[in-house]
Amino acid sequence: MIIEKNDILKAALRYAEQGLAVFPVNGIDAEGYCTCGKAECQNPGKHPATPTGFKAASTDPAKIKKAFDRPGLGIGVATGAASGGWWCVDLDGPEGIAAFERWAREAGAELGEIPVGRTGGGGRHLWFCGGEEIRNSTKIEGESIDVRGTGGYVIVPPSSHASGRRYEWERPLETGLAAPAPGWLLDRIAGRGRPKEGEPPLFVRSQPGPVLFKVPDTLASHPGEGEGSRHSTAARLIGSALASGTPRERVEVDAIGFARRCSPPMAEVEALRLVADLAGRQVAQVERLAEEVEALPLPESKWPRLAPEAFHGIIGEIVRMIEPHSEADPAALLVQAITCFGSALGRGPHFTIEGTPHFTNLFVTIVGATSGGRKGTGGGRIKEAFSFVDLNWVAERIQAGLISGEGLIHAIRDPVLGVDKKGLPIVVDEGIQDKRLLLLESEFGGPLRAMKREECTLGPTLRQAWDGGTLRTLSKNSKTVASAPHVSLIGHITREELAKTLAHVEIFSGTGNRILWCLSRRSKLLPAGGGDLDLSRPAARLKEAFDKAAKVGRMTRSGLAEERWREIYHDLASRTSSGLFAAITSRAEAQVLRLSMIYALADGSAIIEPEHLEAALAVWEYCSASAATIFGSSTGSSLDDRILEAITSSPGISRRDLHKRLGNHCPGKELVAALARLRDGGRAHEKRESTGGRPSECWWPGVTRANEQSLAGSTPGNREGGEQSEQSEQSTREGREADLCSFARTQTETFRL
Question: For residue 750, which of 12, 17, 376, 675 is within the disulfide window of CB 3.0 to 4.6 Å?
Answer without folding.
Answer: 376
